[in-house]
Design a protein that fits this description.
Blueprint: E1 12-16, E2 19-27, H1 31-45, H2 55-61, E3 67-73, E4 78-89, E5 92-102, H3 111-125, E6 130-135, H4 140-149, E7 153-158, E8 177-183, H5 187-193, E9 207-211, H6 215-221, H7 223-242, E10 246-253, E11 256-262
Parallel strand pairs: 5-6
Antiparallel strand pairs: 1-2, 2-3, 3-4, 4-5, 6-8, 7-8, 9-11, 10-11
């Protein structure tokens, strides 16, 4: 099991290749820990200097009501982080989640979920009910995590949101993004965090958007084909969101996946 603790006192254990590994999830406390967030961006996503969020941003987040939460080994090595930026839109205060990342070698141990749970706890303590972030709709594991494991919904698709992104994950494609809305006090989110279905399994969706397998390999071997798939997915979402449908579920079919859309979220 893995426990998140803002004070850093609650250690969790998770199975690793070399036996049980201890982690602690807590807010970053020093400038050196915040500087690790800059380094982790390069190591996790392969960003060059010009693409990384700088140290000054992470320092300022702690002074303007935001949060920077790290995942640490028992020896104090930082292996993941999530950052929250205070935001305001249409009279509502919310958090924008800048980044969530875990180093290779520490993935698939529940750290991403633990970081988001700590982010949620801090937001609730600040009286905030909504956390948003963007993610690449073609990355099916991220979609499953965001929608099924966390309970986020999506109703906005942004074309080439960041412009050209120099990252091994982007693979030269336009930086299209879905906007995840995480209504952290909702019954839907509470169901997801208890491991229950986020939408009634027997309910037929109003629409679906399929993501084929092999998109990551196509970015390298057949970039024109990868761009064609992205354009097709983009048009699907534009069509569905024009009907005011909402992404409420995601089905993993091995390496491929399907977004499920309904006329409303539960």
């Amino acid at each position: 099991r893995l426990h998140a603790g803002g004070t850093g006192r609650d250690l969790g254990r998770t199975e690793g290749r070399r036996g049980k590994v201890k982690y602690v999830i807590r807010s970053c406390r020093t400038r050196d820990e915040l500087a690790c967030c800059v380094d982790l961006q390069k190591r996790i996503w392969g960003y060059p200097d010009r693409e990384t969020y700088p140290l000054r941003l992470f320092v300022n987040l702690g002074h303007i009501g935001g949060h920077v939460v790290g995942a640490f080994t028992a020896r104090g090595k930082m292996v993941g982080f999530v950052a929250s930026l205070p935001a305001w839109r249409n009279g509502r205060r919310y958090f924008h989640s800048l980044s969530l990342g875990v180093l290779p070698g520490h993935e698939n141990r529940g750290l991403g979920r633990a970081l988001k749970l700590e982010q949620r706890k801090l937001a609730l303590g600040a009286g905030v009910e909504l956390i948003e972030w963007t993610f690449d709709p073609l990355r099916v594991k991220n979609a499953f995590f965001n929608i099924e494991r966390l309970g986020a919904v999506c109703r906005r698709y942004v074309v080439d949101h960041y412009g050209a992104v120099d990252s091994r994950l982007q693979g030269g494609l336009p930086s299209d993004r879905l906007v995840a809305e995480w209504w952290i006090k909702s019954a839907r989110v509470r169901r997801a965090l208890r491991g229950r279905p986020v939408r009634p399994p027997a309910r037929q969706p109003a629409a679906e958007a399929a993501i084929p397998a092999g998109i990551e390999a196509l970015k390298k071997s057949r970039p024109a084909r990868a761009r064609a798939i992205q354009r097709a997915v983009r048009e699907e979402f534009r069509k569905h969101f024009a009907r005011r449908l909402v992404v409420t579920g995601f089905v993993l079919d091995g390496p491929s996946g399907r977004y499920l859309l309904d006329s409303h979220e539960d």
